[in-house]
Amino acid sequence: MIPRVSGDGQSSGAKTILLRALVAPFFVAGGLFVHEIIQAQAQPRWIVDNFLERAIPFLPWTIWIYFSFFLFVAYTVIRVDSQQFWQFVRTVVLASIIGWSIVLVMPISFVRPDPALIDSALYRRVFTFVYEADPSHITFPSLHVAVTWICCLLLRNRPGRWRRILLGAGISLSTLFVKQHLISDVIGGVVLAWACVWLIENNYLIFRRGRKEHGSNR
């Protein structure tokens, strides 16, 4: 038999999604505000240019894979339960603080393709916008990659894990093909995601275990 979902359950689910939809813009706006401050404060000190980076082709069409990041984050926010939602928020905030701090200390830059040389008018406009919104010295580690893998890790126990891993790998690689990040940025983003998820999850588990033990002693 197929279980029926009660009207109260549907209403509760709708309210949860609505609440998250209202909370998310505040975090996005806050992140963009801080990003603008970091962008103004961080001045590039080192320019990376090596044969490995030059060997990676510039593939404008992969920008759509790059943009799928935003859909993946929205999907994660909708799919996780309440505890995981706030775990996601804490983890992303922690990763952002660490990432932005590193950018201030190590503002690395690199040379990007000139959007004016792209044949397609659509891609010229898209890349002009992307490069202006996220300059090349806000690069290490990649928060685009870090948040992608935070989503993958939070959803790791749900069905479809390997599809999400492939999507995460595709998004990570797309940051290289659109010349938005360096190889070191991608590696740094993956490591940052794993470290932040581990820190948040372990603190949460310690808190839960301590509360349970405290309750058992009553």
What report would you give on this structure?
The chain is an all-alpha fold and 218 residues long. The chain has one domain (40-213). The chain has helices spanning 7-41, 51-55, 63-79, 82-105, 121-133, 143-154, 161-177, 183-216; strands spanning 46-48, 108-110. A two-stranded parallel ribbon has the order 1-2. It is globular and about 50 Å long. Residues 1-9 and 205-218 have low confidence and may be disordered.
Please supply descriptive tags for the structure shown above:
218 residues, disordered C terminus, disordered N terminus, globular, mainly alpha, 8 helices, 2 strands, two-stranded parallel ribbon, single chain
Main sheet characteristics: 2 strands, parallel
How do the strands of the widest beta sheet line up side by side? 1-2
Mean pLDDT: 82
Regions with little confidence, pLDDT below 50 for 5+ residues: 1-9, 205-218
**Number of separate domains:** 1
Order of helices and strands: HEHHHEHHHH
Structural class: mainly alpha
The separation of the N and C termini measures 42 Å
Give the proportion of residues in helices: over 70%
For the secondary structure, the number of strands is 2
Shape field: globular
Beta-strand percent range: under 5%
Q: DSSP helix count? A: 8
